[in-house]
Amino acid sequence: MEVTKSFTFSFRDETREKCLTVPISLPFDGQKADFIERLMLAHNLPSYVRPQMEKDLLLFIKNETQKLQDQESDGLLEAFLSGKQATGTSKEEKWVEKFVAEHSACSGSVEQSEEAAFAQVYYSLIHSPALETLLQLEQSYAYNVEQEIIEMDRSRRKMQDRQAAEVERAVANLGTKVTDQDINHLTSKHFEETEKFEVQWVRSLNGLVDSQRQEYRDWVTTVQPDSLEATTARPAKRQPARHHSRNPSRDLLNAKQKAPVLEESFTIHLGAQMKTMHNLRLMRCDVLDLCRHQVQAEEGGLAPQRVQTAMSLYSSSLCGVILLVDNRINSFIGIKKEFAELCKRSTEFHFPSLDEQFDNVRETVSPFMQNRSLLSLSSSQRTSSPSEPSSPAVSPVPAQSTPQSLSSTNSDPQFGSESRTSSNASAALQIGDFYVTRHSNLSQVHCVFHLAVDDSVRSNKLSSRQACIVGLRNVLHHAAMHNVFNISIPLLMSHEMMEEMTLQWCVKRAELVFKCVKGFMMENSSWSGTETRTIQFVLPPGISEECFNQFTAMVPNIFRLANALDLR
Fold first, then answer.
1. Are 396 and 417 spatial neighbours (Cβ–Cβ below 8 Å)?
2. Could you report the per-residue pLDDT of 172-223, keeping only the tens digit for each?
3. Are 448 and 361 in contact (CB under 8 A)?
4. Is residue 243 a contact partner of residue 235, using CB atoms and an 8 Å limit?
5. Per DSSP, what are the bridge partners of residue 33?
6. Do 306 and 293 meet the contact criterion of CB atoms below 8 Å apart?
7. How far apart are CA 58 and CA 56, in angstroms?
8. CA–CA gap between residue 91 and residue 70 (Å, rounded)
9. Percent of the chain scoring above 90 in pLDDT
């Protein structure tokens, strides 16, 4: 709505008083300074009247514009209250249209991904009466995969025994019926046979896992909580049979479970003024037992640890464990191989497989490795150059990591390697770096922190400034920032007992880790609030009970225990 108002300005010159009247269109959209300048020139006004005229004109435009807006608003309100909304409807529609267009342009379209939709459906089902049905379905799938692996191992042993017997017969007849060329041909044949066998069984196992994953996800996304009675019969047919062949892997697991497990729990306070309460648990066990499913005495039973892990999968209270590995991102040797075999014994329904996660980590790490390599190279060149003054070594620039990324000994991760070949630089980490893998098919663990260490952890002179201890600090920082409220730490920075681990060595190492973790936890309190966390210190299975008792006695001397409440 546009109207014209008359602006009147009076001023006095040397002889008489004069009056200037100018029509002005409101609302006024032009430049006020330019408009005043044109008035001065058009009417040949003296320069001394400009300040007063400018002040009066600005006040006139402000007051008249306010009156015009008030009148228009009053008219719209009266029309709305009287039921005559024809005038206001177009305004409302235009306002809504502009509002939606503005917010759409700024915020962008947010579409729910397939993974997010599956997570929502799974979370609702796992917290409903479908819990038991869902976990029994997972257990039956895991049983089928385990049987496939057992059959593969049995066929491999049979093939290896046959090949060994053939080689022995050939060697026994060497020089009479068999020549060296025949033996070389036989070993080549065995190698090709073994390679073909592995490819065939891996393809079969991958096909079984893929079909289980697709069938499971389809069932989860289609079932509804109000139709559980109708759908319960569907997964029931997949339950494993009651009578089945003897399982060697389960026998081995039961043997491990018979070994005594020592545990001791504490409740501690951290901080002086703002105290936070946390739980500590000291336990002697194999660290992979936290990932391995416990065998139930009754077939078809559900382990309580597995139920708890499944219910907290998509929650803000996650569980993690630290694995000490070498600086290669693979699963070929040592505890990495054992952990990979453990992950393959059941289907991963929620996250990529372990091999896919390793590939993603290697792809993410590669550019950081190259950057770190360049920084190290330029630093060494400047240090060794005689024409330039020496300078300290260049630290890589940090960059924030995610639950499936990598971190280094800095407060935030940056990846790289020292001067190596390009192939090695893309695969090797520095000591103290770590990467994270996510899992839904383990017993008590949601995420695993793979911390790169070397033989320096076996030294008796390990200090809090070492890269592996700084890497431990970064792991705890990363866990605190991503809602990992329960984390298991190797107390001796080793997963097995070694010859140099005397009682004195163990006590000194435990004291160092206890004190470092205490400091890191106090830092995390300032980073992530005052939530209660649980820290599990895991000792190797070969530790003696005497040594375990000494560690138990050290806790009250390092941490401040919570006072017991006497209710008498």
1. no
2. 888 788 888 888 999 999 999 999 999 999 899 989 999 999 999 888 888 7
3. no
4. no
5. none
6. yes
7. 6
8. 16
9. 21
